[in-house]
Every structure is written in C-alpha cells, then in structure tokens.
Amino acid sequence: PGSVSAAFQEYLQHLGLQDFPCGLGSWNKSRLNARRRPRAEPAGLEEAVPPGEETPEVLLELLRDQHSPWALPPDCSPQDRLLREVAVLAPELLHGSRVFQAVKSLRILDKGVEEVDEGLLQFQQLEELVLSANHISRVTSAHLPRTLKVLELCCNAVGDLQDLCARPPPELQHLGLGYNRLCGPSQEKHLTMDFWPNLVSLDLSFNSLTDLLGLVSQLSTLQNLRILVLQGNPLALVPTYRGFLVDSLPKLSILDDIHIWPDERQQFHGLARQPDLIRSEARVVVSIGEMKGLPDPEAFQQLEVNSEGPVITYSYCVTYEF
C-alpha cells in the first residue's frame, strides 16, 4: 500500500472483524437482532441460544485460546485483541466508519507506506501513530489528527520538517525522527516551543545534524522536554557534546538513553557559558587489528648490504568515508 489509509484497510482485513467468530452472522444473528428491537418487558433470564448459534462466551474463547485457529499470534498488540473482542460482543460498534472512532493507537510498520494521506483525519480519537520502517519522505501536518500525542517516524526518509510544522498536533508529547535524513543547520528552526509546546520526548538520533550550538538554542525553548536522543549525528562527536547539553538544558532527565544524575549536572556546571569550547571538528582514532595478504617485511631484511638484488617497494592507500 502506498498510503496510511490503504495500509489500515489491509490491517482490518488481517483482523477479520467481520468474519467468524467476530462480526454479524448466522452464529449470533438472533442475539444482535434482539438488541436492536425495543424491549417489551424487563430483562430477565437469558433466553436459550437458538440452534446453530453460539454464546458470546464461546466466541470469545475461540479468540483467546492459543490453540484455536482464530487466535491472534502472541506478539499482537493489545488493541488487536480489544478490537476483535468488541467485534464479538458489539459488532455494530465497528461497522463501517465507526471503526475509526475505536482506534486510539495505529502501528503500521514496514508496509511500504509512502504517503501520510488525509484519510487519517477519520481517526478522531487517535493518540498514537507509529509509522516506522516505511518510505515516508514528507509529512503534511494538516493530515494528522489533532488528538495525536505520540508520532513515531523512525527509519523513514524525512529530510525536511517544514510541512510537518505547518500545523502540528498541539498536544504532541513524543516525536520520533530517528534514522531519517535531517541535515543541519536548516532544520533546527522547526524544533521550538512555537511548534511543539507540549513535547516531552524527542528522538533525532542517526540523522545528519551538525550545528550543536544552533540546535541547543532552539531546544532550550521546549519547556517540557525531558528526554532527548541525539546520538548518531555528527554533532555528537564534539568532545564537550554531552556536558554542554546537560548544562544547557537543565530540565532534561535523559540524554541518549542515559539518565542525568545531579552529580553529573554539577560536574558540567558552567559549560553552557563557554561556547568557544564547541569546535566544528572532531578527532577519530582508527585502530587496525590485522591486515591479510601483504608481503612479509622480514623477507626484505635477508638482502645483504650493497646487494645488487632487485628491491621491490610496495605502497598502500587507505581511504575512510564519513
């Protein structure tokens, strides 16, 4: 599927919410028809189940028993199980477009999605959207539900945040952009309080961000930011990288998955006031453990002094690509 909506329809087919033992069919038709008719008298004892139909308890057991052919795999999400059980107990709640109102978390991983389309606006209760490991290069914020609190776009091809920041979800608390194509220093301007007033967690790991000073000046406006991941960017190679961030963002609790304790904050106190220590360069030490296929240097030492024997000189070139 090329869009999120198409991937969701494929996901619904996988769940089989309209197929036995879910949905409406000969296995539960009279029970659901009785629910639609107005009650003529107070509810008493449950009526006997007509021949050929099953009780809700039996249908639920078919979903929950791990040996059942209708059971979901053990690693499925809690929402998958919940939707299928609702489709047994009250299938009318998931009929047609109503299914969009029941989904609060949508996880579409590695499905070849390229477009975040406007069909997402049908999810009026959506709080978590995970689209990792797809082929998304552009996210139009107007297509995102305003109720969104978690947006995870790890391992995509996002290189520009302008469209995402045009009208971002105001309640967003986590933004995951790790393993994308963000390059500095043009993208830092989109990471401020003006766009993300409630952001608590931000993952920018393994991109191509280079301007540490510029990035910190923008992130310092995020008053609620507590978790930050920047490892894997060139700016993380700066010798004073961690200390400068710890001192510059006093409200930060976790940096690169490592908790910031009071003694570490005290250790780096005052480093934020010394930006001259931040250099746009880094030193990389490469150690070569073993090289195969080279002539043995000891063989050359056997030549006698002033020998007229042929001397062969070898030259080698090693290239590092960053």
UniProtKB/TrEMBL annotation:
Keyword match Repeat:
yes
Print the keywords alphabetically: Leucine-rich repeat, Repeat
Q: What InterPro entries has UniProt attached to this entry? A: Leu-rich_rpt, LRR_dom_sf
Q: What's any one GO cellular component for it?
A: cytoplasm
Entry coiled-coil feature ranges: none
Protein name listed in UniProt: LRC43 protein
Q: Which organism is it from?
A: Cnemophilus loriae (Loria's bird-of-paradise)
**Its encoding gene is what?**
Lrrc43
